[in-house]
Amino acid sequence: MELLLEITPLLIIGVSLVLAFVGAEVMKRAGIPQILGFMIAGLILGMTGFFNDEIRNSLFPLVELALGLIGYNIGLEIRKEVFKGQVRKMSLILIMESILTFVLVSVLAYIILEFFGIAAGWGINPWFIAIVFGALASATDPASTVMVIWERHCKGNLTDTLMFVLALDDVIAILLANITIAVAISAFSTAGTIALSETLFHTLVEVVGSSALGAIVGASLVYFINREDDRRALLEFELGMIILLVGVTAVLGLSSILSCMVFGFIVGNYVEQSKDPVSHTLKTVMSPVVMIFFVIVGASIDLAQIAGIAAIILAVVYVAGRSFAKYFGSYVGSTLAKMPKLTTRYIGFCLMSQAGVAVGLSLVIEEAFLGIGTPEAQAAGVLILNIVALTTMILQVFGPISASEGLRKAGEYPEFLEPGYTEMFEFYRRCIDCPMGNTSDHDFLGEPTEERIEDMPEDYRT
What we know:
2 domains; 462 residues; mainly alpha; Na+/H+ antiporter like fold; globular
């Protein structure tokens, strides 16, 4: 007991980083994303009693900063080039898979909550909690999937479409989460003290205000960066601007994830190319903050709550419903958009991962529900955080594996090809992806002989 009283935030940060590093190395050797190692490290610390409410509250500024960094990293990955070309077709895929996931997971979560009476005694309709699960399920982790694409040097229509969907998928998730949180808070407010129209208006103000603030700060940073020659000063200045932006959003009650995402988009697209590496260096410098964030999430998991049969079934249904909706929604969207056959067939496999945004939003939801001040709202917030954390652990295991397999079956793994095969593969890929079959730019490859056709992946011969 005396040892517990001597635990300080600085000690926790040190222990968290060391244990998270060890966990990440173990996961890396197993071919599993490092985030799972961070969360397991937090789970261990929580079980051993290192984390308590006082310590967690003292580390909340780091949580706020980590949420901003998650948004910043997503913004950096959104390239303005993705809005060119087949935007209308890709947007159809994005909307179909996001909305179907939101609807299906919401319905399934409602059925489980109602059947097991999980929300009984909370004084609200289970629908208000179910739609929060649906909003969080619509988020897709871009980091692990993009890592697969980069590691394998994937190229093709599926890869291009996937980058567009991953870039904007979390934007929709953040918007849905903001709306559903507002609705749920309105439902928990006693005697209707907070009108639904008022909370929805507040959500609209939050979304517009967060986006505008991120755009203004981002444009200001770009202006100064493009006129500064000292790269080290650029790193310090950009870091300071991110922390300042997170602090201002906290004071104004805005969304740090959304604001920093807009900020990251502007910085990533409008900083001069010669100075662009500064942003990527910053991601490396700030990675310990993100590590601690996932450790805190892992330590916040209540094993007693998720050990119950109802919680386990809810988690299983969440994973199954989300996986089906992601696949079927993207399949329907691709079919309606008349995308190439291989893209239509395999894009759903690449949308299974869940991590940063879903976990970050679930932590925001828990804090918002705690702020309501009622035991019922607190119980709902803890349940949401626990289910999302547990399902994230599951999806982080098979999500990247599923994405890797989907890209491989689509034939977008150049290193799996035989020597001298890559050019031939690209020739056939472009023949299939181009509706007119125009291959005049690739005449140097010669005519497709029977031997070449025999060497093609089976899907490309059909």
